[in-house]
Structure formats: structure tokens, C-alpha cells
Amino acid sequence: MANDRRIKSAVDLISNFPDVILQHILCFIPIELAITTSRLSRRWRHVWCEIPSLSFNADTLTAASVNETLTRYTAPNTKSFHLTITPYPENIPYIDRLIKFAVSHNVENLSLDFSSHYYVKLPDFFCNSSSVKQLNIDIGFSHMIVPEYCTMSWTSLQKLSLSCGRLSDESMANILSGCPVLENLTLHNCVELKVLDLSKSLRLRILDVKCTMTDWGSTQIVAPHIHRLRLLSSQSSSPTLVNVDSLTEAKLEILFSVKRYFTFKADFFQTVEKHLDKYLEIKGFNLNTCWRSKDGASWNKCGVYAKSKHVTSLVELILKNTKKLDKVVVLLDELYLKFKIKDVVVPSLPGYKNVNVVLSTTKLMTLKS
């Protein structure tokens, strides 16, 4: 009885919040669940109808539920719109309607995840939008990300991410020509691309490329205006950097695959060493000058032999062979680290006193026993 009286006398503080706060909270739950809050009370009946962000998953959608949601939604503009399509045996009839709804409501952040569905084709009207500022498209490999015949016009687009789709040189050029204010570009495993020419994208400053597919092996990147580059590639699909004259920060990760399992760690390291040497030779590096220091070659290729003095030597080597540096980050594999970071002496060289040298441990590689 006492508990019942407490419940009856309790104040509903959440319902007293302004609509804008309640709508912000509802953005963090699926739209179907947000709609159910309209049954709580009269106060909640129309709160969800103007939430600034919408997220749909085709697993839980029906044509009727889509129709009800879009009909009752009354906000003139949508800040964020996310649509996920999982495997279906055939096209879903309301996909175009959902995309058109987002574009017509001046969406700023649009995300389309079709990575598990192989029958989706983006509608032609999608090629024109003056409101989208951030766009993420993840599509199946069997489809062209953007039709080549469409004239692109994403006049406000600042950040673009394209993943797992066919992307020809013509299609990429078409996209770039329609994005005059593009600042950030991400391409993850977009097959068929041979030349990524960003010379006309004058505002582009950040480029993130992931290319573990073999098609990227002969791709050329021309990006004279970018300042930051992140490149993740396999040894067989690493693109060629033709022009990156404005580059001030780069993170390069090359994956070296080992085709068979090695029982002994020594065999593993010897195999990785051969792959790495071969890769450097293909790229035109002189192994005697770029891959060895005065302390010898073995520690450069096998971390188990590394000592604190070698880390000092490596940092010194980097400083002496680089014209402009603001920061050096040295990641030490804790799996084989046999000394303490505090024992590493950071070299102090004339002209490099303002360079920030950061030493950190991370588990770069794990071998199964």
C-alpha cells in the first residue's frame, strides 16, 4: 500500500521537459520504438513527430508502417536520416520513397547502408540535393555506387564516404564535379577505380582510402590539395601516390599476408621480412638506405631483438631524414617489448627541439600458439 501511494504521488519529471529535449532523447532509439511513446499519455502523443533524426531498419519495416510513419511525421526538416537494408530476395518497394522523403525534408546527414543487399539501385533523383552536408553510402559490390549517366549536384556536400561498390573513373569524376565544397573523402574498397584525380577538388583536405581489393593495385592517386592522408592497403593492392604536394600528415598501413600458418615465430618473421623487402623494392626504395640504421638490420625487421637504444636510433634516423615534422608517434608492440619505455632516451637534435616525440605501446600483432 505504501508503495502504491508513493507511485501515485510521484511527479513525472521527464514529461515536463520541453519537446526539444524529449525529441533529442528519442533520436537514440529506433523509430518504431519512438512511435510507441505516443501511447504513454496525451502529452507524448505528438512528441516523436518532429524528432530531428530518423533511423530505419528494413528488418522491422512493412509498407504499412512506413506509410504511417511518413504520414504522421510533421517536422519540415530532418537533421539526420539513416537507412539500413539487410538481405532480401527482391527489391523493397518503399526504398525509393524513404530516400525521396529524406531529400525532400532537407536532410543534412544521410547514411545508406546497403552492404548486405545485392539488389539495391539508387534512384536517379538522388543525384541532386542542395541540403546534404554529410553522406555515407555502403552498397553491394554488384552495383555501381552512382549511375554514370546522372549529372551530380550535391552543392552543400562537405564529407563523403563511399564503401564496397563499383566505382569507375567516369563515375568518380562525375561525383567530384558535383561536389564543389567537398572537404573530406573516404573510399573503402571501391572496385574498378584506376585514377583518383582530386586536382580539381580545391577544398579537399582529408583523404581516407582503404583498398584491400586487388583492383586497387594499379590505381593512381592525384591529390595536390590534401593535408591529411590515411591509406590502408594490402601488399598487392597498394595505389601509387602521384601528387600529394600539400600533405602534412599521413598514416600508412600496409597489410602483409602470410599464406600458410607457421608454428615457429622465427619462420613467421622471416616470411614477413621477405614480403616487406619485396614491396619496398617494387616501390623503388633502396633497402640499404631506407630500411637499416647504424645499429644493424635485424631489430628493424623483428621486434623481439629491439632494445631501448634502437628506438632512440630509429627516432634519430627519422628526424635526420625528414624535412618538416611536428610530431612523431612510435608504437611499440608490447607482445615482444623487453624494455621499459622510460628507458628510451629521446634524442635532442639541433633544429628538431620543437618536434613532439610520443612513445606508446600497442599490441600490433597476435600469434596463436
From TrEMBL:
Write the protein's name.
F-box domain-containing protein
InterPro entries linked: F-box-like_dom_sf (IPR036047), F-box_AtFBL13-like (IPR053781), F-box_dom (IPR001810), F-box_plant (IPR044997), LRR_dom_sf (IPR032675), LRR_FXL15/At3g58940/PEG3-like (IPR055411)
| Positions of the F-box/LRR-repeat protein 15/At3g58940/PEG3-like LRR domain | 96-244
Extract the Gene3D superfamilies matched here. Answer: Ribonuclease Inhibitor
**SUPFAM superfamilies in the record, alphabetically?**
F-box domain, L domain-like
Question: Where is each F-box domain found?
Answer: 14-50
Q: Which PANTHER family match?
A: OJ000223_09.16 PROTEIN
